[in-house]
Write a structure and sequence with these properties.
heterodimer, A: 7-stranded mixed beta sheet, about 0% helix, about 50% strand, globular, B: 5-stranded mixed beta sheet, 4-stranded antiparallel beta sheet, about 40% strand
């Protein structure tokens, strides 16, 4: 089984709808991240969490919110989706052993907002 | 945040070595150099990282210049499965270990 899973894998929604993307991990890591990727570009950080109930904004948090109610789960919500939020969304985890720690990514959720 | 510069694309032949360069002239003394890659339709995956010394693992080698202003990821024998976008990254540790992904180098491997 994959260590970092994301649901759904694909989602098409309409402008103005609320949508939630889920991320679960079995790696036992404390830190979790949400990134988005636009075509032809690298990933940009939306939010990150160091531990349960800890939430920190990334570089592009406007229009998004997150929830970390359990160590293994980190949810990303779009309260009122808009077309320019159409992108590929990735969740990642790390165990923060120090400056050399690495991140482990999920398979991604492809979101289309019509 | 320190910036990295990579060529947009490179080509290689299968079973030949590949050297992927990265410039990071504004690197600070405590910045680690990380490499990730993203295969088509997949999430990024960690490849290797280092601080000052050259590093080897089962996937690749990382050669770091003495002044640390550049590094090279070395794939010793490229396979078709190594075709991916390779990102050279300096994680931002005062922002939760944020990874700043540039455009990376798209590596194509010819049979």
């Amino acid at each position: 089984d994959a260590d970092v899973t994301q649901t759904p894998r694909n989602r098409i929604t309409k402008t103005g709808k609320r949508i939630m993307l889920e991320c679960s991990q079995t790696k036992g890591h404390d830190r979790m991240y949400w990134y988005r990727q636009d075509p032809g570009l690298g990933l940009r950080l939306i939010y990150y969490s160091f531990d349960v109930k800890d939430i920190n904004k990334g570089e592009i948090s406007d229009g998004y919110s997150v929830s970390r109610q359990a160590q293994a789960k980190f949810s990303l919500s779009l309260e009122s989706a808009i077309p320019n939020q159409t992108a590929l969304y990735f969740c990642a985890t790390s165990d923060h052993r120090g400056p050399g720690d690495t991140q482990y990514f999920g398979p991604g959720t492809r979101l289309t907002v019509l | 945040d320190a910036k990295t510069t990579q060529p947009n694309s490179m080509e290689s032949n299968e079973e030949e070595p590949v050297h992927l360069p990265c410039n990071h002239s504004t690197i600070s003394g405590t910045d680690y150099i990380h490499w990730y890659r993203q295969l088509p339709s997949q999430g990024p995956e960690y490849v290797i990282h280092g601080l000052t010394s050259n590093v080897n693992n089962r996937m690749a080698s990382l050669a770091i210049a003495e002044d640390r202003k550049s590094s090279t990821l070395i794939l010793h024998r490229a396979t078709l499965r190594d075709a991916a976008v390779y990102y050279c990254i300096l994680p931002v540790y005062n922002q939760g270990g944020k990874l700043i992904f540039g455009q990376g180098t798209e590596l194509s491997v010819k049979p």
